[in-house]
Specification:
- Helix content is 44%, strand content 16%.
- By secondary structure, it is an alpha/beta fold.
- Strands 1, 2, 3, 4, 5, 6 and 7 form a seven-stranded mixed β-sheet that branches. Strands 20-21-19-22-23-18-24 form a seven-stranded parallel β-sheet. It has a six-stranded parallel β-sheet with strand order 10-9-15-16-8-17.
- Strand 15 (556-559), helix 22 (567-576) and strand 16 form a beta-alpha-beta unit.
- The longest helix is centred in the first third of the chain and has 41 residues, at 3-43.
- Bound molecules: adenosine-5'-triphosphate.
- This is Superfamily I DNA and RNA helicase.
């Protein structure tokens, strides 16, 4: 690189750093100043005169408290803003920017080149001149999208053309330019290579400096209602989508908060793995949850099938699962719910003192008395209102019953006082005789002082009304909550009646197979157990009956590892987040829960959206693994040939054969010693949890962490983890335990083996007893080494 260029760039960097330091000082001073102001305001609380003797006094006091609070919150706001600026600046000052582009806007045709520097966030000097542009600014797209020459980029006002004359990349550390180079490509391979050669860690990092053109499309897409990203393992789907969240928060700043963005992730461990990326980009994390958490928190009394059970019980290969997870099933539930408008709503009587106070037959009469064009939710609301009125109407007759008489007799002094409200002084009871207090008194009605009963009869009357009203309160609550709906029975009825709404033959199911299945579900339900598939059905039915309209505040919904969802679950999410734009990421080759059922997922899901608003992006280039590992893993799949490896070289994967498990354990220990010298993180991936637990006992190595549950934290060093928890994660080295036919012998386990093998960044070893898995049959032998 020309020396003059380095001198000029150093000069620009120093100028930027100087301006940043100045701004940092000013901001620090501002924080100090606002802190002082806050202190002063807080201290002046003493000046607020608390006048509580009179009503007008209270009003006056409330007004000055409000004023004080307003002042405080304004100061707090400016403090928060200053603190945010301070944090951003501190982050920026080490690496103020990572790229520069020179370009001219063809539109103006002035021919004069503009120069902009691109960094994590924008920075302008005292004269409001931008020294650094945010990577999310429209113009920064030029950096990611193309090389030198004419380019087009999107702005909120439409496409804009530009002519790029220079693209320069920088590595700046601690405020010093370490390297800088000019490139003609979108993002130079050298920079990407350096980003990918590092060791993995327990936390994912942002890819802001090396976002690829295809990824940039995903990040900046605002038009699609459904953005479907299909990409091979390690093709940067997750990385890109986290950048997308940061982009959206910037693009819609002031209108969109991180609380309005939800990410559904495969498991908690993964949530933990990615939760540093947004803060690193200077943004707050979005809401992250798993589908299991979303569904199970709504049914706290049920034991919803866990991830482990779901994986190990392997119910999903059955035709029943295919039927229950289908869009046809979703339509069937919708149609079944429709018919509840006419009949068959399952109800519970409202019980009072062991007897039905309002019987379920009566409730059904009420529910079905309304006009045909009532919707389910309107019917329910109207029924609630009528039930509330009947409840009030029952007070009179109930007051004359013996139990009330008895309750009055048995009242203690304290209970009596509570009932008549004696001893309670309410605001407004003892007032000066001014206008405000008179109004107040009128609003409050008679105070306790007036509660002197004219006669014993009046007193009894009063007490019995109080007692009955109290006793009926739980029923009022039940009515409000709709507890008279018998959802369990309704769900069972849905399953029983399903053959009227779903063509079982379409799924190769006979009526008796279905009926048998329904009996199993009923047994499980009695034990308060529900599979995840049934939970979704159950919740959808419940929402239709109660007229829940979903979470309308959520604007963007992301679903990672979509291949493990059924079309039914996706349709349910679409129903539950009606105003959200969806971005879904998946790799059909990693469908470990839904297996072949995943094949039509993309088509099925897209059906739920307007076809003009659906966009698909396919990522075939992988970044995670070395060329050798990617070339090996792609042959595990049938049809994985179009996966392109990134040209980063490493060792060939190794297959180690052992005559027995004891020898395999020994091989494992040897391999661990080697890897622990070379790498930061090594994962021993077993197929099941039971395998992981047993291996951990056999190893008896305290430095190896066993990950048994998704609620644990990832640990640096060596871990043992069951396959289904390794989803979405990556490790420097991976050792697959029992990579033989005992664990990976079926064609249906092909995707699982691919998923676990593709977790490796730099090294991969497969340990097998006697013979390696038959699923490697199509992998050319030259792509790996065998040791026995
Ligand atoms: N443009 C990029 N620049 C630098 N690193 C990248 C880039 N894209 C992806 N990576 C890295 O490649 C690795 C794999 O990315 P990521 O986990 O996002 O892939 P994925 O498609 O979600 O994989 P999987 O489907 O296997 O979970 C990560 O370490 C990520 O940081």
């Amino acid at each position: 690189m020309d020396n003059q260029i380095k001198i000029d760039e150093t000069q620009y960097l120093n100028k930027t750093l100087k301006a940043m330091e100045k701004s940092l000082k000013t901001t620090a001073a501002e924080i100090k100043r606002t802190n002082k102001h806050i202190d002063t305001v807080s201290q002046s609380w003493g000046d607020v005169r608390l006048k509580t003797d009179t009503y007008s006094g209270i009003v006056e006091t409330a007004a000055s408290i409000r004023q004080q609070q307003q002042m405080l919150s304004e100061r707090e706001n400016s403090k928060t803003r200053a603190e945010h600026r301070f944090t951003t600046l501190t982050q920026q000052i080490d690496k103020p920017y990572f790229a520069r582009i020179d370009f001219s806007e063809s539109a103006t045709d002035s021919g004069e080149a503009e120069t902009i520097y691109i960094g994590l966030s924008s920075f302008s000097d005292d004269n409001n001149k931008f020294l650094v542009y945010d990577w999310r600014a429209p113009v920064a797209s030029i950096y990611y999208d193309g090389g030198i020459g004419d380019v087009t980029y999107l702005t909120p006002d439409g496409s804009q053309r530009a002519h790029v004359t220079l693209k320069r990349q920088f590595q700046i550390e601690d405020g010093v330019i370490v390297t800088l180079f000019d490139t003609e490509e979108a993002i130079g391979d050298a920079m990407l290579m350096s980003a990918l050669s590092g060791e993995s860690s327990t936390k994912m990092k942002s890819i802001v400096t090396t976002i690829q053109k295809e990824q940039n499309k995903i990040i900046r897409n605002t038009a699609a209602d459904l953005l479907f990203v299909q990409g091979a393992a390690g093709s940067g789907k997750t990385a890109a989508v986290l950048q997308r969240v940061a982009y959206l928060l910037y693009r819609y700043r002031g209108k969109l908060t991180s609380g309005q963005v939800v990410l559904f992730s495969p498991n908690q461990l993964f949530n933990d793995y990615i939760d540093n990326v947004l803060p690193e980009l200077g943004e707050q994390n979005m809401v992250q949850m798993t589908f299991y958490q979303y569904a199970s928190r709504r049914l706290p009394k049920m034991a919803v099938e866990t991830l482990q059970a779901r994986f190990e019980e392997d119910q999903t290969s059955s035709t029943i699962a295919l039927a229950k997870g289908s869009l046809a099933m979703f339509d069937a539930v919708t149609a079944y719910a429709q018919h509840l408008n006419r009949k068959d709503l399952k109800l519970r009587s409202l019980m009072f003192r062991g007897e039905p106070l309002i019987s379920k037959t009566r409730i059904a009469e009420i529910y079905y008395q309304y006009n045909d064009n009532y919707k389910l939710s309107q019917r329910l609301d109207a029924t609630r209102d009528t039930l509330m009125r009947s409840l009030s109407a029952r007070i009179g007759s109930e007051m004359r019953k013996d139990w009330v008489e008895l309750a009055i007799e048995n009242l203690s002094k304290q209970e009596y006082d509570t009932l008549v409200g004696a001893g309670k002084v309410r605001v407004g009871d003892d007032q000066e005789n001014d206008a405000a207090s008179r109004t107040r008194q009128a609003q409050l009605g008679d105070g306790p002082k007036a509660r002197e009963f004219a006669s014993e009869k009046a007193e009894r009357q009063f007490l019995s009304r109080q007692i009955v009203t109290q006793a009926l309160k739980p029923l009022a609550r039940q009515i409000r909550r709709g507890s008279f709906l018998n959802i369990n029975a309704q769900f069972v009825d849905l399953l029983r009646q399903l053959p009227n709404y779903l063509d079982l033959a379409q799924f190769d199911l006979t009526l008796s197979e279905w009926q048998q299945h329904v009996e199993t579900v009923i047994d499980n339900l009695k034990n308060k157990q529900l599979s995840l598939t049934d939970t979704t059905l159950y919740l959808y039915l419940y929402d239709l009956i109660t007229g829940k309209t979903g979470e309308r505040d959520i604007r963007f919904l992301f679903i990672d590892e979509i291949q493990d969802y059924t079309p039914f679950q996706l349709a349910f999410l679409k129903f539950s987040f009606p105003r959200a734009k969806f971005t879904v990421l998946g790799d059909l080759n990693q469908a470990i829960f839904t297996k072949d059922n995943a094949n039509n997922l993309s088509r099925d899901f897209a059906k739920l959206f307007d076809s003009d608003r659906v966009e698909r992006v396919n990522l075939t280039q992988t970044y995670r693994s070395t060329q050798q590992i990617t070339d090996f893993t792609k042959y595990i799949l049938k049809g994985g040939q179009n996966i392109e490896a990134f040209n980063r070289s490493g060792q060939k994967p190794r297959v180690k054969l052992s005559p027995n498990e004891a020898d395999m354990l020994h091989q494992l220990q040897q391999q661990l010693t080697e890897y622990s010298q070379q790498h930061d993180t090594t994962a021993i991936i077993t197929k099941t949890l039971a395998d992981a637990q047993l291996l951990s006992e056999q190893l008896q190595d305290t430095s190896v962490t066993l990950i048994q549950s998704e609620n644990q934290r990832l640990a640096q060093g060596t871990i043992i983890v069951p396959s289904y928890l390794a989803k979405g994660l990556e490790f420097d080295a991976v050792i697959i335990w029992h990579a033989d036919n005992t664990r990976y012998g079926q064609d249906s386990e092909r995707r699982l083996l691919y998923t676990v093998a593709s977790r490796a960044m730099h090294s991969l070893t497969l340990l097998a007893e006697k013979q390696v898995s038959c699923l490697l049959d199509h992998v050319p032998e030259k792509l790996y080494e065998v040791e026995s």
